[in-house]
Amino acid sequence: MEFILRIDVGAKGGPTWRKEPLGGYAGNGGRGMTSLIVSKEVPPLCHPLGARNKLVIAPGLLSGTSASMSGRISIGCKSPLTNGIKESNSGGQPGQMLARLGYAAIIIEGKPEGHDLYKIVINKDEVKIDIDNSLKMLGNYDVVDKMKNEYGDKISTISIGPAGEMKMSAASIACTDMELRPTRHAGRGGTGAVMGSKGVKVIVLDDTGKSMRTPKDPEKFKEANKIFVKGLKKHPVTGEALPTYGTNVLTNIINESGGFPTNNFKSGKFSGASKISGESEVELQTKRGGLATHGCHRGCVIQCSGIYNDKQGNFLTKQPEYETVWAHGANCGIDDLDTIAMLDRLDDDFGLDTIEMGAAIAVAMEAGLAKFGDGEAAINFIKEVGKGTPLGRILGNGAAITAKAYGVERAPVVKGQAMPAYDPRAIKGIGVTYATSTMGADHTSGYAIATNILKVGGDVDPLKTEGQVDLSRNLQIATAAIDSTGMCLFIAFAVLDQPETFQALIDLLNAFYGLTLTADDVTALGKSILKMERKFNTDAGFTAKHDRLPEYFYTEAFPPHNVTFDIKDEDLDQLYNW
Amino acid sequence: MNNSKLTTLSLCVEEHVLARILPILQKGFIIWSRAGCSLNELLCMQQKISSDYIAERISTIFLDGKPVDDIDKTVIHDGSSIALSGAMPGLVGAVMRRGSFYASFRDSITYKKGPDTPSQEKCMVNLKFFNIVMKELGPDFLKKGIFFKSSDLTDFLTNQSKDFWHGNKEILLNKKPVGYSLIEKGEFVLQNDLVFFSVKVC
Question: ipTM score here?
Answer without folding.
Answer: 0.92
